[in-house]
Amino acid sequence: ESLRYSVQRLQGFLESLELEIGELWDKYNRVKRDVLNKIAKKLMYYCFFYEVWTITIGYNKGWQSDTVKLKKVTRDLFVSLPFNQMFKRIQEEALYFGITVDYTPEGYTSKCSYIDDESIGKKRDGEYAGLRRFT
After folding, report:
1. Is residue 113 part of a domain?
2. Boundaries of domain holding 20
3. Which of 13, 25, 33, 73 has its CB surrounded by the most CB atoms within 10 Å?
4. Does residue 75 form part of some domain?
């Protein structure tokens, strides 16, 4: 009799725990969606204000999971960031504002200089126009 009562009590506790976990996941997803919407909207307002009509996003497949040089805690936090969802939301907002979004391999974007009016792409002999000054 007391064993049956203990099992029923434990089952009730587990059901309430599952409900709490579900509510926490729902809240996490709502907050994440809200933050992604705000990031995309602020980026679009910035681009619209400064008359930027093309956004180039550097991206490599698997770049998030290949972060082996980071410490474990940092790597876990970085991998859990929803970059693909953010890129998708930026693309949706850009369509509304009439802004073009281009994806290009990240290796070509990090060395190219917008200030020197350099096009994005692989350069022969690794020569890039940017002077690489740090001020």
Report:
1. no
2. 2-104
3. 33
4. yes
- The percent of residues in the chain predicted with pLDDT above 90, rounded, is 33
Residue 120 and residue 108 in contact, taking contact as beta carbons nearer than 8 Å? yes
Count of the separate structural domains present in the chain? 1
Q: What is the pLDDT of residues 95-111, one digit of tens each?
A: 999 999 998 876 655 56
What letter does residue 117 receive in the DSSP assignment? T
Inside any domain, residue 82: yes
Say if CB 114 and CB 64 are below 8 A apart: no
64, part of any domain: yes
pLDDT tens for 34-53 read 999 999 999 999 999 999 99
* One-character DSSP codes across 49-116: HTT--EEEEE--TTTTTT-TTS-HHHHHHHHTS-HHHHHHHHHHHHHHHT-EEEEE-HHHHTT--TTT
20 residue type, one letter:
E
Of 120, 44, 118, nearest to 86 by C-alpha is 44
The tokens for 10 are 């434990």
